[in-house]
């Protein structure tokens, strides 16, 4: 005789061992460790709850792009890289073709630094 408990819902879960998916599930349920799960029913309930909780999240995260969008993105990235490389090349090898960079402040001479006498003699000869 079936129980008539208002707080209980009965459902059956039939698995066909000829179906590889069902066979895998049946083996997993048979090998459940009792210290990690209370029962097979609780394990299945936890699995269904996890699936339901994450079902909407996976739908929102799956933003697929088409091949044409991917190609367009690759072209844009390639153009951006080439533009950056051209500017860097111009700045490095043609410094007068680019706008001048801000001048770096000159380092002040400290008291410990004294000009070399030999160097000063050479400089004085230039006049």
Question: Can you characterise this structure?
Answer:
The protein has 127 residues and is mainly alpha-helical. Helices cover 54% and strands 0% of the residues. Among the domains are: 20-61, no CATH class; 64-98. The protein has four helices and no strands. The radius of gyration is 38 Å and the shape is elongated. The mean pLDDT is 77.
Mean pLDDT: 77
Q: Portion of residues in helices?
A: 40-55%
The overall strand count is 0
Please give the alpha-carbon distance between the first and last residues.
120 Å
Count of helical stretches: 4
Could you give a short account of the major beta sheet? none
- Strand percentage lies at under 5%
Q: Which structural class matches the secondary elements?
A: mainly alpha
Shape, per Cα inertia axes: elongated
H/E element sequence: HHHH
Low-confidence stretches: none
Rg from alpha-carbon coordinates: 38 Å
The protein's oligomeric status is single chain
Name its key features.
127 residues, mainly alpha, 54% helix, elongated
Question: What's this model, at a glance?
Answer:
The chain is an all-alpha fold and 127 residues long. It has helices at 20-30, 40-61, 67-93, 117-125.
Secondary structure blueprint with pairings:
Layout: H1 20-30, H2 40-61, H3 67-93, H4 117-125
């Amino acid at each position: 005789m079936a129980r008539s408990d208002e707080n209980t819902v009965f459902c059956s879960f039939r698995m066909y061992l000829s179906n590889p998916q069902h066979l895998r599930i049946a083996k997993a349920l048979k090998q459940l460790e009792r210290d990690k799960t209370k029962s097979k029913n609780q394990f299945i309930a936890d699995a269904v709850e996890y699936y339901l909780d994450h079902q909407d999240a996976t739908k929102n995260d799956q933003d697929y792009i088409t091949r044409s969008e991917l190609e367009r993105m690759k072209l844009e990235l390639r153009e951006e890289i080439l533009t950056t490389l051209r500017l860097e090349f111009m700045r490095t090898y043609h410094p007068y073709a680019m706008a001048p960079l801000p001048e770096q402040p000159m380092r002040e001479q400290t008291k410990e630094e004294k000009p070399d006498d030999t160097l000063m003699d050479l400089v004085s000869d230039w006049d």
